[in-house]
Fold this protein.
Amino acid sequence: MNHLLKSTITDLVSENHVRASVLYYFGVKFYDYKEETLEDVCANHGLDAQSVIKSLELVTDESAATQNQLKAYPPELVTEYLKHAHYVFIKKRLPYIGQLIDGIKDVNFRYKSLSSDLKSIFPMFVEDFIHHIHEEEDTMFSYVNRLSKFMVDEKPSSEIYYLMEKFSVKEFALEHEVHESEMEGFRKFTNNYQYCEEADLHIKVLYTELERFEKDLLIHAKIEDEILFPKALQLERLAKLKFYDFSKLN
């Protein structure tokens, strides 16, 4: 544990590029303190060194375990999980990637034009991404939660009838497929996130984060496709049955 404290920020991040994001959440831009030790940075920022070290050591991938847990959840809890993931994407991950792009200054000549292109393209990507997420929450997620509520404690109403006439889980699923290649442009742009040996640490960290973000988006899409949509389709069928059965009785 002690060796991390005595390591320079550059060495820490070079060993594992994801550590740069941990430092960012503690308020430290790694490229501003390249040659300082972690111990010095913690002291100068008033950070608890043990908390920082613990966070640096917790950089792991829990996606498989999360997906297995979600299979047992009802659809309305799956949407809550996905909404939380949306919040993390918008409030943490994208601002961090944006800060990395804005912070690019002197880089190897091979990356100069790419870095200036990223500075103009990334804000447009963020805008489209946020719009897509809000649209999904206001339509699909809202619809699923409304059906869940109807199944638990409500009699059929004209409101639920019009909702089921207006929305369709199958249509949401088809539309969703169109949005699953949002990061394709960045992948082509960065040559599949492959960098040459001469690339600056800043570029290596940025490429790592873009690739991580794409992987997380793919996992997110997989949870929607393989867990949420099948559960939502079943819920929609049950809601329609409940509605029609009640209609026959009246």
In short: The mean pLDDT is 88.
